[in-house]
Amino acid sequence: MPHQTLLRKTTLVTLLALTINMLICMNSSSAETGKPNLSRLYMSSMRNDGDTHQPPLIIVHGLMGGRLWNINHHKEDWPGTISQVLFSNYTSLALPIDPKTLEPQDDGRIAQGITDRAAGQDYYGALIHTLETAGNYHYTKSGEPIKDFSLRRFYIFAYDWRQDNVISAKKLSQLIEQIRKDYNNPKLKVDIVAHSMGGLVVRYYLRYGEKDVLNTNDFPVNMHGASRVRRVILLGTPNLGSVTAVQAFIYGRKIGFNTIPTETLMTMPSIYQLFPHALHNWLITDDLTKLDRDLFDVEIWKRFQWSIFDSDVQARIRSRFSTTQEADLYIATLEKYFEKHLERARRFVWSLTVKAPKPPWKVTIFGGDCELTPARLLVEEEKGDSMIRLWPKEVKNKQHEKDYNQLMLEPGDGQVTKASLLARETLDPSVPQNKYISFPIEQAFFLCENHDHLTGNINFQDNLLHTLLSLD
Questions:
Q1: What is the spatial order of strands in the sheet that 75-78 belongs to?
Q2: What is the pLDDT of residues 429-444, one digit of tens each?
Q3: CA distance 275 to 331
Q4: Which residues pair with 371 in a beta bridge?
Q5: Residue 145, preceding bond cis, omega within 30 degrees?
Q6: Kind of pairing, strands 283-285 and 377-382?
Q7: CATH assignment of 45-240+351-369+440-469, given 3.40.50.1820, 3.40.50.300, 3.40.630.10, 3.10.129.10?
Q8: Other CB atoms closer than 10 Å to residue 27's CB: what's the count?
Q9: Among 116, 204, 435, 467, which residue's beta carbon has the most beta carbons within 10 A?
């Protein structure tokens, strides 16, 4: 009997131990199969053995992705402290305007680095960590002569994301030329990975380099990037624009518990250049009839009293001035500024899609397609007036047989639709791309991730390293 009891106890202990081991193995197996081990996957590639085939890599952040330093007050104005991210409306970031030229003036802020993390949220930190650990890339500053050519190197292009994207493209060009000097190689090519609006900056650079072609309706493509870029990886780039940019110009952009108001955003030329392409079906009626309205015509904005033409916006502006005359002068300047940069934005979006020679660089697209994303605004008649609805929940007289989510939203990443990502008018891949859109893509990959977290997605990082490190 004692032996039988001991046997039962031993058996129970053994079974318990086996069960625990099985659970550990299952959890371990689940962790390994559910999440790629990037260090293991790219372990062999970390042994360079003097191989110098790998071009330097440039990371280009998106809208609001770069830190802004105030050189006059010696502090970071964007994103700044946690308190600022949570509670500030960032009205101080509004660019001052020259009333004669209607161009932004220097406000003493400069781009200084990338926003890796802010208020506990990761933006580019995880991406940089992966490049350094699994990809064996080494962060390097431009202007440092390269002596060890066996190392993989990456650079960060930090730019003032408020400014015109053409200005940013020019600065990108200057960075690339400096890197070529650092390598003492005038034929050096670079790889580029660009997030969100940064992809538009890159695409302009590839076509036009430092040339400003937006002063007329002629866009002479010179393929400047042909001899300077090998691979381009675009992540969450609104290649046909974003309706969310229009929404921000109407109601402002929410940050933390506050909102950056439209009168601040409209001083930033880059955001106009995020508006939907002229070929995009951005405005419909509730029966899905496309309304042929020109978003880049200032009269549309006046008609619907959006942005600077909104009486509430003007009232907020007036509250900041001590005299009516000063307020009137500033509002009049903003209205002229708005019209000028709206037209310039029209030319910008067209400049990226006009016909161009087949590029020698390879373009790979990554983006989200699991989150319903604003694709169209809807016009609804209310008491004889045409009212604009930005979201399905705003529609007041809903017809039960209609799916307003399907009418107004499309799969995307919450800010950029899949169709815009691919520079297509429709989601249907069997429909040919519009004949007036020239944007060849080598590969496209889709993720279930929202816009701000795309860079930290492990599957993106896995495919990014595979793309960058491939010889072909």
A1: 75-78, 66-70, 109-114
A2: 888 888 899 999 999 9
A3: 22
A4: 412, 413
A5: no
A6: parallel
A7: 3.40.50.1820
A8: 10
A9: 204
Pick from 60-69, 113-122, 278-287 the range whose average pLDDT is largest: 60-69
For 168, the token pair is 């940013």
Half-sphere exposure of 187 (CA within 13 A, CB side): 0
**Which residues neighbour 218 within 8 Å (Cβ) at sequence distance 6 or greater?**
none
Alpha-carbon gap, residue 135 to 355, rounded angstroms: 36
Q: What is the pTM of this model?
A: 0.91
Q: Whole-angstrom Cα distance, residue 437 to residue 292? A: 19
Domain boundaries, given as residue ranges, for the chain: 45-240+351-369+440-469, 243-347+372-410
Record the tokens describing residue 128, joined without a space.
């940089």
The one-letter code for the residue type at 62 is G
CA separation (Å) from 417 to 229, 274, 420?
27, 13, 5
Q: CA-to-CA distance for 155 and 152, rounded, in angstroms?
A: 10
**pLDDT tens-place string over residues 82-94:** 999 999 999 999 9
Q: How far, in Å, CA of 65 to CA of 319, rounded?
A: 31
| CA dist., res. 299 & res. 149, Å (int) | 56
